[in-house]
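Hi support team,

I submitted a single chain yesterday and got back a structure, but I'm not sure I'm reading the token output correctly. Could someone confirm the output below corresponds to the sequence I sent? I've pasted both exactly as they appear in my results page.

Thanks,
R.
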Amino acid sequence: MAIVFVSAKAKQAVFFRTTAILVISTLLVAFLVFIITGLWGSGKMAIKGGPGQPDIAINLNIADSAKISNLEPFYSLETEFAYLVLDENQQQVEGNISAFTKEEAQKSLESSGFKVLNLKEAGLGRNQPFISY
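Hi R., thanks for writing in. Yes, this is the structure output for that exact sequence:
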């Protein structure tokens, strides 16, 4: 009986080789299944169901349709602004409004008949997060 010692570097090399083989084989299978049959075929993929299972058809040509090509890109998110305004009775009202820019929020408040006293970007989250509601 012999005792064989394997160094840490040898174990590491075996691990990396095995991982590389698994990644390459997974990519190869994905290429063969999805790319060749899905995109180079008719643009449709069909999965045949077993007994009592429905057949599933996926139409990949929808990405070329007019509904998709006419979409406008979405560049920015609305920001929430905290405001303090005077209403028509000269009463102070405070609250939050969502808008893309501070100027847009101010125009929206002024068009609603308010006189803007203070308008600033609302902070995210709670001021005191460890106090219960």
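A quick pointer for reading it: The longest helix spans residues 8-39. Let us know if anything else looks off.

Best,
Support desk
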